[in-house]
Recover the amino acids of this structure.
């Protein structure tokens, strides 16, 4: 059964107990795989496909025919759902597009910032039960909107060498440009360093298991990465008027992801707290992934009874959850007080799952309290900015003495000279 | 003497040879320091001040009196320069401020993104010859504009327990809220985990030596960090009409930073190439830091003779330099072709040093080719975004079947249930 706390009896460690752990054994395995891919390229990828995916591939790359066949085999209603989800994601993310700016209000001076898309992006898609077409859309669509030219997807093949149809269809709907049949740390290494078939990219995005996450951390700096996602989290703030069965269902929608997932309810109603506690017991056995959900709820789940909704918000800001539901009658009144949260679901009829698949905002969100300083995946993650400066010689002459003095005080006479030399006769 | 290449004779490795190196010995030292600070807090910081800075401190924090005394002791002209630089930085960075957005064009649906400042930021300022007041301005001003409430600066004290006057004055001008006397990995650990005196922050920014950089990398995830800056770089694209002594001075303004710094000239003029080569030999001995500059120029410096300015730009895009000067008559004609560069200096009279101190754009820039995917430090680095979703029950009912189908196809029945339960009778 889920644990129940009262806010005035909680220790700091009851609220915040998420620490990132390293695993030395995994580090060593991943380091070897990366070195192998750097040394042996495609052949290493083919060998790992045999070893880990039990697939004997003729080609590392999915053909256009394979992609089209998968797309045509799928229920047209689901293709329609994918397209509607893509369109919603596009509408939301287009609002994130940034323009260049120029400042030209002083005689002879132009300053500005230009925004340029990252040229090539790698998109990792896990295999097995974590093979999610929604992830393909959520990662590829913002990259497309940013203007990324090449989006290279990698995902592990089935033993017969095929790829999951829904993943191929989502890739086609999202506009992925190439699809590589490779998974694990080896796929990340290929994207970071390039092989005969796999282009070296500038940034790698997408979720993955511990081997993928470790590989991404190791190649960070050679290429950029999106983030290292921790276990999924949901925090529900609910008042006494909420339906306990809805609240329980929403908590379970994250608990079913992973035994390490965290589901927390904070409420100002002891009655609701106890009803949700009971309702969880009713709903857990009904889930396909009931064992995972039970472990998550019993080990990491928490119901906190707070003095008020305001206190609930304060506790939530310290936890900085990935998903935050605000189940009260006027959720917009609370929105301004939310300081730290990845995605916020407003009102009693906005289950977090709506955002995972369909509404439009991204489902790749900061976990483990990183919403204190990190943001949902966005168009910003697929562009970079360059600043630029233009001064006429006259404009430079008016400030040259100050720049020369500043540089000289910092002991950098070369910096000073590069300015003063332009005014020597 | 600087090496001279012809573009058609260059190997790929002549152009790009920057790889990040780890240092296991430093890693171990830094890990011990971090553990010590976590265990012993202020006392560990005081002990390290004795050991490394030879300072026996009464208090880890600079008093308001110390700050005001330093400010009042400095040449008022330099205070004026600091204020003018701050104002220019403010004008530029204010253009980066992002607004919230809301999308409300479908009945019963509100989507949006809100932008919130990071609450607490730590700013590391190195000691010794790398103690730069310009860095204080470049890091603190964007944080202020973002709305960061607390900016905690740490910097190592002099042996008498004082701090450099220019650093204190710059901190006052920039609006730093607290100043801690501590340097090295121990200061980074204190900011990441907090001590009795030092508040635990959400993000750490600012340059530092290998111990500071290693500590930042280790605490990344617990807190955010800005970037791990590599050695400084300048790439100058110049045509035959340029003054070789200006070009040489500009190359040296980065070469004097660090023996590992890289200065590259790409020109379409063999005559200019040779004149700059000679001019470097004239100017190097005139520098205060001539030995550093000479090592940098001889080991990492490069002059590349290209077929055309267009080819020079293509090579530059592959190198993705930190600082890029475009010394041609119409630099704005070239600007659009620049894909990868931290900061771009347009025209023959815009030495890179102008941007280091005064013009307004940030001087904290992506190094080591990371301009392919990274950006100059900006207001964006001191905020985070949260998305939000509101649907009425009617709006949800219109899409519920698609969301339930999508979730079920991904094997996540708990996700499906959290939607469907709201429509069960």
């Amino acid at each position: 059964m889920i644990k129940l706390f009262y806010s005035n009896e909680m220790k700091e460690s009851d609220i915040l107990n998420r620490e990132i752990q390293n695993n030395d054994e995994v580090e060593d395995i991943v380091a070897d795989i990366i070195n192998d891919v750097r040394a042996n390229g495609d052949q290493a990828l083919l060998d790992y496909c045999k070893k880990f995916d039990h697939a004997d591939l003729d080609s590392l790359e999915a053909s256009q025919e394979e992609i089209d066949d998968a797309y045509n085999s799928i229920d047209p209603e689901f293709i329609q759902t994918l397209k509607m989800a893509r369109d919603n994601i596009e509408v939301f993310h287009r609002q994130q597009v940034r323009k260049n700016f120029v400042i030209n209000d002083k005689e002879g001076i132009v300053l500005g910032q230009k925004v340029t898309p990252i040229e090539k992006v790698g998109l990792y898609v896990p295999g097995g039960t974590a093979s999610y077409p929604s992830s393909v859309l959520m990662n590829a669509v913002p990259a497309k909107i940013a203007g990324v030219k090449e989006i290279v997807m990698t995902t592990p093949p089935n033993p017969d060498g095929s790829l999951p149809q829904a993943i191929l269809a989502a890739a086609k709907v999202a506009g992925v440009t190439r699809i590589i049949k490779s998974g694990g740390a080896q796929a990340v290494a290929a994207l970071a360093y390039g092989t005969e078939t796999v282009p070296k990219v500038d940034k790698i995005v997408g979720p993955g298991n511990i081997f993928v996450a470790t590989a991404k951390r190791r190649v960070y700096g050679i290429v950029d990465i999106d983030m290292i996602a921790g276990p999924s989290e949901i925090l529900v703030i609910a008042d006494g008027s909420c339906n306990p069965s809805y609240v329980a269902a929403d908590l379970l929608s994250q608990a079913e992801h992973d035994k390490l997932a965290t589901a927390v309810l904070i409420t100002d109603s002891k009655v609701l707290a106890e009803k949700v506690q009971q309702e969880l017991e009713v709903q857990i056995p009904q889930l396909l992934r009931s064992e995972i959900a039970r472990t998550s709820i019993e080990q990491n789940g928490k119901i906190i009874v707070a003095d008020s909704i305001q206190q609930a918000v304060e506790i939530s800001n310290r936890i900085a959850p990935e998903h935050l539901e605000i189940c009260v009658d006027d959720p917009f009144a609370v929105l301004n007080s939310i300081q730290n949260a990845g995605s916020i679901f407003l009102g009693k009829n906005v289950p977090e799952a709506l955002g995972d698949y369909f509404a439009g905002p991204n489902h790749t969100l900061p976990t483990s309290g990183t919403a204190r300083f990190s943001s949902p995946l966005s168009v910003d993650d697929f562009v970079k900015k360059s600043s630029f400066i233009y001064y006429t010689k006259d404009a430079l002459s008016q400030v040259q003495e100050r720049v020369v003095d500043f540089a000289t005080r910092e002991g950098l006479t070369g910096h000073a000279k590069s300015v003063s030399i332009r005014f020597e006769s």
About this structure: Chain A touches chain B through 117 residues (CB under 8 Å). Chain A has three domains: 24-101+111-225, 230-372, 392-423.
